[in-house]
TrEMBL record:
This is Secreted protein. The lineage of its organism: Bacteria, Pseudomonadati, Pseudomonadota, Alphaproteobacteria, Sphingomonadales. It comes from Sphingomonas immobilis.
Length: 163
């Protein structure tokens, strides 16, 4: 719906719409983030994540985004800005997604007071950290169990998806 609204604004000449496509190969997974942003804004108005299954692409659910008003434009409240492929225990692959919030903590629709955080997907596109806080002991124990604690502690090199 928001993409249609942005497309209609762009078609009317009120704003330009830019498209960013980023691909990531992670083990057997072939993933793509597609983002649409209005000219002059950082936060996308629409964003999707897909993975290749055979010859077709299948949608993967992103974190519920909501929307926020930034500089007079309606954008996704939460959006993916970066990602990386991690190899865990038994050579299992995980995709780390870096999220940003379109508004500052304390503003309406402020993403629970956080400006940035990470989420973890398996290569089938399912969140493996559902119900786990974005930081703290439970997150640390999950990363240790998955075999990625050392990588995350050393710092993960994330690739941008909005470049």
């Amino acid at each position: 719906m928001m993409l249609l609204m942005a497309l209609s604004l762009a078609a009317a000449g009120d704003a330009g719409l830019t498209k960013h496509v980023a691909d990531l190969r992670c083990g057997a997974a072939d993933l793509r983030v597609t983002s649409h942003a209005l000219a002059g804004t950082t936060a996308p108005v629409a964003q999707s994540l897909t993975r290749r299954v055979g010859k077709k692409r299948v949608a993967v659910a992103l974190e519920p985004a909501g929307s926020a008003l930034v500089d007079g434009h309606r954008v996704r409240g939460r959006y993916v800005v970066s990602w990386a492929c991690l190899t865990g225990a038994q050579r299992v692959r995980y995709v780390m997604l870096g999220y940003n919030c379109a508004v500052d903590p304390g503003d309406p629709h402020d993403c629970g007071g956080e400006k940035e955080w990470f989420r973890l997907l398996d290569t089938r596109g399912r969140f493996v950290d559902a119900g786990v806080p974005h930081d703290g002991d439970r997150r640390d124990r999950l990363y240790a169990r998955l075999g990625i604690a050392d990588q995350t502690a050393a710092g993960v090199k994330m690739a941008g998806v909005l470049d």
